[in-house]
Amino acid sequence: QVQLVESGGGLVQPGGSLRLSCAASGFPFSSSGMRWYRQAPGKERQWLASISAAGDDTVHRESVRDRFTTSRDNAKNTVYLQMNDLKTQDTAVYYCRYRSDSGSEYWGQGTQVTVSS
């Protein structure tokens, strides 16, 4: 079955960096686009970034474009989100998402990112 496992979150000071990972299994990862989202307390889930199957095409939310970068390693079935210059407003649970050709959506359990001094 499809499994997505995010990791790499934690507590970081403002201005710091984190690299999130999403390990995928149970579907043809190397031929699948992937997405990153986040959800802050009391807010709706927010799309952050998309990456094509080959990793050669990425799109990022405008508000994070100059600080966040998504990438992938198809040999490791893993997608990454590099986050730099983190701000308190980046505090949220971060998720990766896979959508199958049939339209089913799969989410990981999320990883908590807390930006605080």
Largest sheet: 7 strands, mixed
Count up the helices.
0
N-to-C terminal Cα separation, in Å? 40 Å
* Radius of gyration, taken over Cα atoms and rounded to an integer in Å: 13 Å
Shape: globular
Question: Could you describe the 3D structure shown?
Answer:
- By secondary structure, this protein is an all-beta fold.
- The protein is 0% helix and 50% strand.
- It has strands spanning 3-7, 10-12, 18-25, 34-39, 46-51, 58-60, 68-73, 78-83, 92-99, 105-107, 111-115.
- Strands 2, 4, 5, 6, 9, 10 and 11 form a seven-stranded mixed β-sheet that branches. Strands 1-3-8-7 form a four-stranded antiparallel β-sheet, with no helix packed on it.
- The chain is globular and about 40 Å long.
- The N and C termini lie far apart (40 Å).
Question: How are the elements arranged and paired?
Answer:
Elements: E1 3-7, E2 10-12, E3 18-25, E4 34-39, E5 46-51, E6 58-60, E7 68-73, E8 78-83, E9 92-99, E10 105-107, E11 111-115
Parallel strand pairs: 2-11
Antiparallel strand pairs: 1-3, 3-8, 4-5, 4-9, 5-6, 7-8, 9-10, 9-11
Summarize the structure.
The protein has 117 residues and is mainly beta. Helices cover 0% and strands 50% of the residues.
List keywords for this structure.
single chain, 117 residues, mainly beta, 7-stranded mixed sheet, 4-stranded antiparallel sheet, 0% helix, globular
